[in-house]
Write a structure and sequence with these properties.
It is a multi-pass membrane protein. Keywords: Ion transport, Membrane, Transmembrane, Transmembrane helix, Transport. It is found in: Membrane. One of its GO terms (cellular component) is membrane. The chain is mainly alpha-helical. The protein has a single domain, classed as Na+/H+ antiporter like fold. It contains 17 helices and no strands. It has helices at about 5-25, 30-45, 50, 60-85, 95-120, 125-140, 145-155, 160-185, 200-215, 225-240, 245-255, 260-285, 295-325, 330-340, 340-355, 360-385, 385-400. Helix 4 (about 60-85) runs antiparallel to helix 12 (about 260-285), helix 5 (about 95-120) crosses helix 6 and helix 5 (about 95-120) packs parallel to helix 8 (about 160-185). The longest helix is centred in the first third of the chain and has 30 residues, at about 95-120. It starts with a helix and ends in a 31-residue tail after the last helix.
Length: about 425
């Protein structure tokens, strides 16, 4: 057990580093999350570990930090599930489904193909779960980061921004479902693997039984304590069934009643705790990464990972958008947006490392890929969606009476505008 003063000091260092590098990321027009993830890497063996060794983050302090990080991750995944609203795709289901399919299937296929070649070297936990996990890791899109990017740029008021956000929501759901399958395959050899068979029953009960109960709870004077009990019970159930606790938190968020005022109040109550504990999660992930130890052969693998990740996402997203009727410039905007990975990727990689699906070396390379692809989003957007064109689209959205979100923490999708019809000039950014 570490001295309590050292634990508190480490939390101070983590929060200060996350705040400082997060502000630096915003200063250079990047999402704050890039700086916060970078802070975790800097505090690990990549930099601070080389300078101070284990003096600042000794082995004894890691378990309590991991516990704090796990609690933060449960709260974060709950909010992610809570903000995935089926109304995102209402009226534009064909376009959103097409974009999500293209932006998922191509990188998934490329990733699985490359993983077959990597398997003899890295697949210690079994070839099939490794291949599936690797495919998921290069095909994910960060819905929370994308929502923030759209809100910061005012693009949630445009139809093309709504389509990209809805597609990211669908991609996220598919990614977490496939990740659950990969984790289940890796756990299936244990003597308690029968618990996996209860997962479909658990999901069905959450939507059929728990969801109606939560609708009643939404009218309670103080629902938060009861919701937290249900949240951590759901996380425990998912962990007991060997599909990882993040899925329990995600599903519990997904079955929350879609009362906008209720969700806003709940998010406001949870935000301070998430802001405290998510940087700890980034730090814990960074403490396992030593980028200075990457060998020349691994840099070659990193190059291939970047190539298939970027080409798969951008190429698949662009082609699917064009086939769905989105004009060229609008398709480029969608492709740029779905290439962002950020937080979703970090969560997926952390689960993979914890479950033994990947080792530390491959984890480090995939982490670098997540940072680079997320950092690319801003410059690609500036190129594909110039500020003057964005202003024109915002003016058009205002004239059409598009509803704006009440809270910048949740970018909502316009309710008006064309849906499954061919998309017109307000999306192509000519």
């Amino acid at each position: 057990m570490p001295p309590i003063d050292l634990l508190f000091l480490d939390i101070v260092i983590i929060l200060a580093a996350a705040r400082l590098l997060g502000a630096a990321a915003v200063f250079v027009k990047q999402p704050r999350v890039i700086g916060e993830i970078a802070a975790g890497i800097v505090l690990g063996p990549t930099l601070l570990g080389h300078l101070a060794g284990d003096a600042v983050f000794p082995t004894s302090v890691i378990p309590p930090l991991k516990t704090l990080a796990a609690v933060g991750l449960v709260l974060f995944m709950f909010v992610v599930g809570m903000e995935l609203d089926h109304r995102l795709i209402q009226g534009k289901g064909r376009v959103v489904t097409g974009v999500a399919a293209g932006a998922t299937l191509l990188p998934l296929a490329l990733g699985c193909s490359f993983a077959l070649w990597l398997a003899p070297r890295y697949a210690d936990g079994g070839t099939l779960p490794f291949v599936l996990f690797f495919g998921v890791s290069v095909s994910a899109t960060a819905f929370p980061v994308l929502a923030r990017i759209l809100t910061d740029r005012g693009m949630q008021h445009t139809l093309i921004g709504g389509i990209a956000l809805a597609a990211a929501a669908v991609i996220d759901v598919v990614a977490y479902a496939l990740l659950a399958v990969a984790v289940a395959l890796a756990s299936a050899s244990g003597h308690e693997s029968w618990r996996l068979l209860l997962a479909p029953v658990y999901v069905l009960l959450m939507f059929r039984l728990v969801r109606p109960l939560l609708r009643r709870l939404a009218d309670a004077a103080e629902p938060l304590p009861y919701l937290l009990i249900g949240l951590f019970a759901s996380a425990w159930a998912a962990e007991w069934m060997q599909i990882h606790y993040i899925f329990g938190a995600f599903v519990f968020g997904a079955v929350m009643p879609r009362s906008e005022g209720f969700l806003e109040r709940l998010r406001e109550r949870l935000d301070p705790a998430i802001h405290l504990m998510l940087p700890v999660f980034f730090a814990v992930t960074g403490l396992t990464v030593d980028l200075t130890g990457l060998r020349l052969s691994e840099l070659g693998i990193l190059g291939v990972i970047l190539a298939i990740s970027i080409f798969g996402k951008v190429g698949g997203g662009y082609a699917a958008a064009r086939l769905s009727g989105i004009p060229p410039r609008g398709s480029a905007v969608v492709a740029s947006l779905v290439n962002a990975r950020g937080l979703t990727e970090i969560v997926i990689l952390s689960v993979g490392l914890e479950q033994g699906l990947i080792d530390v070396e491959l984890y480090a390379m995939l982490l670098v890929m997540a940072l680079i692809t997320t950092a690319m989003t801003g410059p690609l957007l500036s190129w594909s969606y110039p500020a003057d064109r964005l202003r024109e689209d915002l003016d058009a959205a205002g004239r059409a009476g598009v509803r704006t979100p009440r809270s910048p923490s949740k970018a909502t999708v316009p309710d008006s505008g064309p849906s499954d019809e061919p998309l017109g000039d307000n999306t192509d950014g000519r």
